[in-house]
Amino acid sequence: MEFTIHLQILGIVFATGIVMGAVANKTNFCTMGAVSDWVNMGDTGRLRAWLLAIAVAMLGVVLLEASGKVAIGTSTFPPYRTPNLAWLRYVLGGLMFGVGMTLASGCGNKTLVRIGGGNLKSVVVLAIASACAYAMLWTNFYDTVFGSMMSATTINLAAAGKASQALGDLTGLGNTAFGVALAVGLLGFAFSSRDFRGSFDHILGGVVIGLAVIIGWYVSGSSMGTAWKEFADFADVKPLRVETQSFTFMSPMGDLARYLMNPADTSLINFGIMALAGVIVGSLLYALITRSFRIEWFVNRGDFANHAVGAVLMGIGGVLSMGCTIGQGITGVSTLALGSVLTLVSIVAGAAGMMKYQYWRMMQEA
Length: 366
What we know:
- By secondary structure, this protein is mainly alpha-helical.
- The chain has one domain.
- The chain is built from 17 helices and two strands.
- It has helices at about 5-25, 30-40, 45-65, 85-105, 110-115, 120-140, 140-155, 165-170, 175-190, 195, 200-220, 225-235, 250-260, 270-290, 300-320, 325-330, 340-365, and strands spanning about 85, 155.
- A two-stranded antiparallel ribbon has the order 1-2.
- α3 (about 45-65) packs parallel to α11, α6 (about 120-140) packs parallel to α15 (about 300-320) and α11 (about 200-220) crosses α12 (about 225-235).
């Protein structure tokens, strides 16, 4: 079989996902855990690792664009910098996802990492979230439930003379200057903590996740990405989602469900599905090597119900907001998209609110 540019890119994404999954398992990189540590214990270690990942990815995007190696523009998957600012979509989807990931014990990335570590509860979460994401992406569910509401609240920034919703474009400062300044600020905050500076795992997790996002942008948006798109244009059967993109996990779950309905159609195996598979395999390899692989199942019906409801909210909310804590919280924010920032803040607010509610319930039952 010819090792086409399509297979090369899928291979790179899979290999990058393996490293990402292994490192996330080793370092316990978890965005839901970061919010939990901060809200419940005042510990900002994992939160700073998340911010470090954002800063690394952001600097990578700035350098790639400034050097002309990658042109992200407004035509990406998802369309992060689109001039159509669907603010309600970002906020509502982010809140739903934040609540959902708290109930389901982890975001999309953490769900994959937990599967690799032997957690069967996360397999159920993946199945339910994938079914819901499929409904949002590949049926008329989104149009029926959300379509008119989101259209009515979308702001057309192009009508105000703005090229995109990137913060550099909106402020007039330029994305290079704005991106460098923001990334430096995030780095300064992350490393201002002595405890964080002394934590190899936190630093490793933040740097590797950030670099993984940069790799995704590079292979899909550079000259390699151009060759990939040309290959797809002339292919007898065009592969799915051959677009400039990087790591995100909720829409790919919907694509995975679609592929599993017709596994003979290999054109449906795309960037996102390979990213999902890579993270699971990387986490599994790390768990086996370190003998930390453990089978885990639901402790009772309430535990199952929480995870099931959380998975539904993750699948619907993640697609509604066009990304998860990685897809919007790191990949999207690396493009300086205002919608990604709104989603990130909403995810944190939703997760923090649910954690406070869970604590109140626990105290009431005590």
